[in-house]
Amino acid sequence: MTLQWTAVATFLYAEIGVLLALCLPFISAKRWQSVFRFRVWNALASFWNKAFLTMIIILIVLFLDAIREVRKYSGEQLNKNSKLQPNMFDHLHMKLFRSQRNLYISGFSLFLWLVMRRVIMLINQLATVTATGVALQTQVENANQVAKKYMEDCEDLRKVLDEGKTGKKIEEGNAVLKKEVGRLTQELRTTDEALKKSQAEVKAVRRQAEGLTQEYERLLQEHHVLQNLHQGDEGDKKSQ
């Protein structure tokens, strides 16, 4: 394996390791978001988009080069050289196997590079939505406590009115308290609706993350199956 394909294979293994770490269930999205906010990442943020696009271009070029090599040593080319010596024929088969291996390495590296960027974005979104939901839940609890307190005050005023201690000041205070209770009730409803919306967004993001994880596991299994098939084919060809 040449130096460039060794680097691509190392990059592929690194991508697999990072994605497996991001998919660990015992590390929360909030913890990952705190990791993404380290100063070193903030310093590299201005170069991230350029590095991302540059890596995509490099992987696409390597992928196209691997396709060219596969077509070069394909079955048609082997048929044209079928009259060659057996050792030369085996050499062409080895070239075809290496070009196919490079094709899969570059293709999966490009795919996992895009998947890793998407997973990081989803983790950040999930952490933000979760924090928003916790803040809204706290606001709802505070509003419930305030509303409960004002309702108790209204109940005390009603008892006073029932006992016959009426007066203009008491009626004015009761009216003010009713308005305040109405305002707090409206705020409570608004906060409750915002909380439900935030919880729905959290569920949607979690479903997307689970779907992406399942898709990644499926593709990884297909990758192992394809590698086993090619190794089996190479073994059959050598045995023949």
Provide structural commentary.
- This protein is mostly helical and 240 residues long.
- It has one domain.
- Helices cover 90% and strands 0% of the residues.
- The chain contains 6 helices and no strands.
- It has helices spanning 3-22, 29-36, 39-72, 75-80, 86-162, 168-239.
- The longest helix has 77 residues, at 86-162.
- The radius of gyration is 32 Å and the shape is rod-shaped.
Spans of 5+ residues with little confidence (pLDDT < 50)?
none
Distance between the termini: 25 Å
Please state the CA-atom Rg, rounded to the nearest Å.
Answer: 32 Å
Mean of pLDDT? 77
Structural class, from helix and strand content? mainly alpha
Helix fraction bin = over 70%
